[in-house]
UniProtKB/TrEMBL annotation:
Pfam entry (one): Glyco_hydro_2_C
Domain annotation Glycosyl hydrolases family 2 sugar binding: ranges: 58-196
DUF4982 domain span: 649-710
Gene Ontology MF term list: hydrolase activity
Family membership: Belongs to the glycosyl hydrolase 2 family.
Protein name: Glycoside hydrolase family 2 TIM barrel-domain containing protein
Alphabetical UniProt keywords: Glycosidase, Hydrolase
Residues in Glycoside hydrolase family 2 immunoglobulin-like beta-sandwich domain copies: 200-304
Domain (Glycoside hydrolase family): residue spans on this chain: 737-815
Length: 820
């Protein structure tokens, strides 16, 4: 019995110690209130409020963190998104387990200027929407706990108020001319951290290895947080490999606790290498032992050797690796920048499943969750500061840029995934200041380049699209938009070769084009006949506009998924025959919101993604998979193309995207033969058939083989042979209902009742009654104002278990209604 009691006691002690360690950092997600305006001062957030009294205004709403001010208005077709101050408030039960410990608020990101208050005391400020930062609230909490209101008004809790402000400011980066929203709010996680008097502020672990992978070197430095002025401590360190085996350990006594302190240098023979296929990581475990308490932590590291060969490709661990890349904005349907960890995990896994081994994080430091996933999934990273467009501001502007570069490098220094620090984007774009001086921009770019190398000698620097600074950085990406902003996509290889000769190290980030999800075309390349080809494919001022200038696909094309699939197919085919190419990155992975594109088919959305803003895959996702992945896959183009059209008896092309060696196709149960895949046989790597559809319903099935494995795909669609004239009427009806959500579809017909399958009219949905449109999602089926796709448009309605009337209107046509 005594032994059992002893075991129980030890078990409780163990559990308590683990809980204590686990609770040193807690996400503050719940019990927040929010008001979308400024207050007269912090007193308005904390004063005693009687229900129904004037003090109860403005009304606060309950929210959870992370929270973005612009979750919906960023893509509201009828308003400019809100840029201004907002307030958050909560009450915290603060009980620090450490004697004389520090209580810290750790912000993983808040936009764009932030002030933090404990009761009425301002305890911290931060400028910059994307780097991490902390506020030590220990002294303010201690002072507040001595007041009467601590118990009387707040019942033993501590009121914390946070003001964020994303107002336009020319002396801040990023510029509001940038092609993305400058979001507001506490849109990344906020943590309550309890730490002993002496803790680790930064742990820098530099892992190096030679190109042959024979000898690894690890050097560890630390920067301590020591507001109490403690004089001595012991640091214990362990290096643990991917299998959990302790490789080495050490202990160091410290008598000087200021500045950056050297802790450990060691050699690791034949280290396990980190690569994109096998992203093996070591764990550096550490414990700081002082008289005031112990502080534990760990850092993940990876041994890998990187080289951008001058006038050549990219090598990882001594072997050529073609960087197969894309881009990421921190942006999602319904939440704006406030993506949860689950959403981020899903997005990064979708990228890896598409075959991505490289990502450029556009155009700012991103969440630690993103970088951790890049490390564990094996995705190499270009991460950059948000010096983007507008020109160059004054001293405050420059100081912010340098501070954000320093924070980015120091906060993400240990990630093996990172290979490039980006210093700027489109810095040849004027507009924010009366002066646009190229020499001053060059001078500042040199300062940033020097600072980056000073902070981290082991990684490269890069910029995109600023030719007059191309010689300053280690790696340069010009702007080549073959087949979109300039020329035809067949110009891509020649344009790349021309740009490659101009710089020391060439990497092509940003290519592709917009596609309006659910829009398809029987003749997607038709607009190319108007385009001047054979010249430069560089994007220039005005090319992104939908108005004026020379003919270009971005302005004159059909914005169909069909065209973009062809463009991507051509680029990927060509990249296989460019042995000197370091790599490319398609722009971007996912559609995202932008204030400067109000006239796009989904207003305020950059629609160049291969998935929609809610993770819905477009057809182009599968084109990438067919070139970049090993796991057998097959996809028939046209899963979201319900009606194809043409003449009776006309043969129509069906494209199969697959990484399998051969495929056999069936139309309405009849085989039309097998074909072998050949990546250089464009389009669809030779897996294309001209098939005689029958009028009405058709079924296409494919069986593809790779070795002993077989994969299949099947689609059904109607084939329309009737010709149509211009749209004359709208028809609106419910086509589906799942639980309390109904799907509504509008179709456009001519005066003879034939569906107008090429109609791109603007459609506006409305609703009155108990329900609510599921709109402001920034997707083709989640916007109340949207261009039609193939003579139709859809939207969902949350019925709220009641009755509603849905309307749909289009200029020049009679408005129609349906009751739900």
């Amino acid at each position: 019995m005594l032994k059992l009691v002893r075991y129980l006691f030890l078990f409780i002690v163990l559990i308590c110690s683990q809980l204590l360690f686990a609770q040193q950092s807690v996400r503050l997600n719940n019990n927040w209130e929010f008001v979308k305006q400024d207050l007269g001062g912090v007193w308005e957030a904390v004063r005693p409020v009687g229900v129904g009294n004037p003090e109860a205004v403005p009304l606060w709403q309950k929210v959870t963190l992370p929270h973005c001010v612009n979750a919906e208005d960023a893509v509201d077709p009828d308003v400019n998104y809100y840029q201004g101050p907002v307030w958050y408030r909560t009450q915290l039960k603060i009980d620090n387990p450490y004697q004389n410990g520090r209580t810290i608020l750790h912000f993983e990101g808040a936009g764009q200027k932030t002030e933090v208050y404990v009761y009425t005391t301002k305890v911290g400020t931060h400028v910059g929407g994307y780097d991490e930062w902390t506020v030590d609230i220990t002294d303010a909490v201690a002072a507040f706990k001595k007041t009467d209101v601590y118990q009387k008004q707040f019942k033993g809790k501590v009121p914390v108020s946070v003001r964020t402000d994303n107002s336009r400011d020319l002396e801040m980066i990023p510029s509001d001319l940038s092609d993305f929203n400058i979001y507001g709010g506490i849109y990344r996680y906020l943590n309550l951290v309890y730490a002993p008097s002496l803790s680790v502020d930064k742990m820098f672990a530099k892992a190096e290895v030679d190109a042959q992978g024979k000898l690894g070197k690890l050097s560890v430095k630390t920067r301590l947080y020591n507001p109490s002025g403690i004089n001595e401590a012991i640091v214990q360190l362990k290096l643990v490999d991917a299998a959990g085996k302790i490789v080495a350990k050490t202990e160091k006594k410290l008598s000087s606790l200021t500045g950056d302190i050297d802790l450990w240098s060691l050699e690791v023979k034949k280290p396990q290498l980190w690569s994109t296929d096998k992203p093996l990581q070591y764990t550096l475990q550490y414990e700081v032992i002082a008289s005031t308490g112990n502080y534990k932590g760990e850092e993940k590291i990876g041994f890998r050797h990187i080289e951008f060969v001058e006038k050549g490709p990219f090598n990882l661990n001594g072997k050529r690796l073609l960087l197969r890349g894309t881009h990421r904005h921190e942006d999602h349907a319904g939440v704006g920048a406030a993506m949860t960890e689950g959403m981020i995990r899903q997005e990064m896994q979708m990228m890896k499943d598409m075959g991505v081994n490289f990502i450029r994080l556009g155009h700012y430091q991103q969440s630690r969750i993103v970088l951790n996933l890049c490390d564990s999934l094996g995705i190499l990273v270009w991460e950059e500061i948000p010096w983007c467009r507008g020109g160059l501001g004054g001293d405050i502007y420059k100081q912010q840029a340098k501070r954000m570069l320093t924070n980015m490098v120091e906060q993400h220094y240990n990630h093996p995934a990172i290979i490039i620090w980006g210093l700027g984007n489109e810095n040849d774009w004027p507009g924010d200041f009366p002066e646009f001086d190229k020499e001053k921009i060059r001078t500042f770019m040199k300062e940033l380049n020097d600072l980056s190398h000073q902070l981290d000698q082991s990684r490269y620097t890069a910029i995109r699209r600023c030719d007059f600074c191309s010689d300053i950085v280690d790696v340069y990406s010009p702007s080549i938009w073959a087949g979109w902003y300039r020329g035809a996509y067949t110009d891509y290889k020649k344009a790349s070769e021309d740009e490659f000769t101009k710089v020391k190290r060439f990497l092509h980030v940003e290519w592709g084009g917009d596609s309006h999800a659910l829009r398809h075309s029987e003749n997607p390349d038709k607009a190319l006949s108007k385009i001047k080809t054979g010249g430069s494919a560089d994007e220039r001022a005005g090319d992104a506009s939908l108005y004026g200038g020379a003919a270009r696909i971005s302005k004159d094309g059909d914005w169909s998924e069909s065209y973009i699939a062809n463009l991507i197919d051509w680029h990927l085919k060509e990249q296989e025959t460019m042995p000197w190419l370091s790599g490319t990155a398609y722009w971007p992975f996912k559609d995202f919101s932008t204030a400067i594109r109000p006239d796009n088919p989904v207003p305020y959305v950059n629609q160049k993604g291969v998935v929609e803003r809610d993770f819905t895959k477009k057809e182009s996702y599968y084109v990438f998979q067919s070139y970049w992945t090993e796991k057998p896959m097959v996809h028939i183009y046209g899963h979201t193309w319900p009606v194809r059209w043409g003449d009776e008896g006309e043969e129509k092309m069906v494209k199969i995207y697959s990484n399998c060696s051969e495929a056999e196709i069936f139309l309405n149960g009849k085989s039309f033969g097998s074909k072998k895949r050949n990546s250089q046989d464009y389009p669809a790597a030779g897996l294309r058939w001209n098939l005689p559809f029958v009028k009405g319903e058709n079924t296409v099935k494919v069986i593809a083989k790779k070795g002993k494995e077989t994969v299949t795909d099947e689609i059904k669609f109607n084939y329309q042979t009737e010709k149509w004239t211009k749209p004359a009427k709208l028809e609106l009806k419910k086509i589906d209902q799942q639980d309390d959500v109904a799907t509504i579809e509008v179709k456009l017909f001519d005066d003879k009742g034939v569906q107008c399958l090429d109609a791109i009219n603007w459609i506006t949905f409305g609703l009155t009654g108990d329900g609510k449109l599921i709109d402001n999602q920034g997707t083709s089926s989640g916007s109340r104002k949207v261009q039609a796709y193939n003579g139709r448009a859809i939207i969902k309605v949350r019925l709220n278990k009641g009755q509603s009337a849905v309307s749909v209107s289009s200029e020049g046509l009679k408005t129609v209604f349906t009751t739900l």
